[in-house]
Design brief:
The protein is an alpha/beta fold. The protein has two domains: 2-157, no CATH class; 173-366, Glycoside hydrolase/deacetylase (TIM Barrel). Helix content is 48%, strand content 10%. The protein has 13 helices and nine strands. It has helices at 2-18, 38-59, 64-71, 78-99, 116-125, 135-157, 198-208, 219-228, 231-237, 259-273, 294-299, 320-334, 347-358, and strands spanning 173-174, 183-191, 214-217, 242-245, 278-282, 303-305, 309-310, 336-342, 365-366. It is globular.
Length: 374
């Protein structure tokens, strides 16, 4: 099996170098079934987990020079990559254990998995036969998972010089790993937009769906909205939703000399403008923050709220539907987590309704924004 994995790793390395560095997305129409029940969600989830696990295993065969070439980087942090791989394996085992609970209802992609060793054995042997009902999905799924894995390994490789959502820096930081199975939190970055913009439409849509989202606002954008409208109008905008802070400007808080003031000014403004909606959470732009910032956040009684599932909507490389399809595929993979959209992007207005429609009968739950990180 090691020989097979070696040649798979070599081919993946060559393909990755040749491929454009776009966010991974998967055409969900290649999957032959609708996710019209919890059991069918589990079937798609098991397939997604096993495909990703197979490619994760393949990547571990590569030595450091080969991995540098595959990721397109001159220097990589192998210790960080190994730590991220280890955490991924733990999450994959948790996800597969949950997904296999419905194997008596539908045995597709059910393998004997009871521990890490058996999961890795199943992943090593995993393939979709040429005559399989799911064969149209196999190659697009392989390409998606390979590219998504490279996205994550590249984030790990750049640590600690470039911080990101790939790593928690202490017990003051949170993501969706601790959520219950099938539970997701919708979050939105970069707003608010000006009146009657995307933020208004998204917040209104969520209220109609009886879902609470978590909106991370920029201080300067919120101040501009207040200046053009009024405090009562802003409170109506975020009615039944939650509001955290993203700093005063959308810029990295890892090297910015005034990063503390950026956060404090934003917190004060949000607490004054929408006190009933405020939650003591900071979302770092680009996921970048200082490694020595824990004392500041604890002193301010703030938590850092990261994400597990990036929609890729801000890159300009994906359409709204591609962004939604990416999110849906990652929901199948991780089975829980914090989803990030940007309410400054038109894509979220189309992607979110598509996503909710496609998963409406899948047995998923949407985390209450007030309870998410308590």
């Amino acid at each position: 099996m090691r020989i097979v994995l070696f040649f798979s790793a070599l081919l993946a390395c060559l393909a990755a170098v040749a491929a454009p560095n776009d966010p991974a997305t998967l055409d969900r129409s290649t999957w032959p079934e609708q996710l019209s029940s919890p059991a069918l969600f589990d079937v798609a989830s098991r397939a997604q987990i096993l495909m990703f696990a197979h490619l994760l295993l393949v990547s571990e065969v590569l030595d450091e020079p080969a991995l540098k070439k595959r990721l397109g980087l001159k220097q990589i942090n192998m210790a960080a990559i190994d730590a991220v791989r280890h955490r991924m394996w733990q999450r994959l085992l948790t996800s597969y254990n949950a997904a296999q609970q419905s194997c008596e209802q539908d045995a597709s992609f059910c393998f004997y998995v009871e521990d890490m060793d058996s999961l890795q054995k199943a992943a090593g042997k995993f393939r979709v036969a040429d005559d399989s009902f799911y064969v149209r999905w196999a190659e697009p799924a392989r390409a998606f998972n390979e590219r998504y894995l490279d996205e994550q390994l590249r984030l790990a490789a750049l640590l600690p010089q470039t911080s990101s959502e790939i790593q928690l820096m202490g017990d003051h930081e949170r993501n969706g790993e601790a959520f219950n199975d099938r539970l997701f939190l919708l979050t939105f970055d970069g707003g608010p937009t000006m009146a009657q913009g995307n933020t208004d439409e998204l917040a209104d849509y969520l209220r109609k769906q009886k879902i609470s989202g978590l909106f991370f606002v920029l201080g300067n954008a919120l101040q501009a909205r207040l200046d053009k409208t009024s405090m009562p109008a802003v409170r109506e905008l975020y009615r039944q939703q939650c509001v955290g802070v993203e700093g005063w400007q959308y810029r990295s808080h890892s090297q910015w000399q005034d990063w503390e003031d950026s956060i404090l000014r934003s917190v004060a403004l949000v607490q004054n403008a929408v006190p009933d909606n405020y939650v003591a959470l900071f979302r770092p732009p680009y996921g970048q923050r200082r490694a020595d910032s824990a004392a500041f956040f604890k002193a301010q009684h703030l938590q850092v709220a990261l994400w597990d599932i990036d929609s890729g909507d801000v890159t300009g490389k994906l359409s709204a539907e591609q962004s939604a399809q990416r999110v849906m595929t990652l929901m199948l993979l991780w089975r829980r987590g914090v989803i990030v959209f940007h309410d400054t992007q038109d894509k979220a207005r189309t992607a979110l309704p598509w996503l909710l429609k496609q998963t409406a009968e899948s047995g998923l739950g949407w985390q209450d924004c007030k309870e998410a990180f308590r």
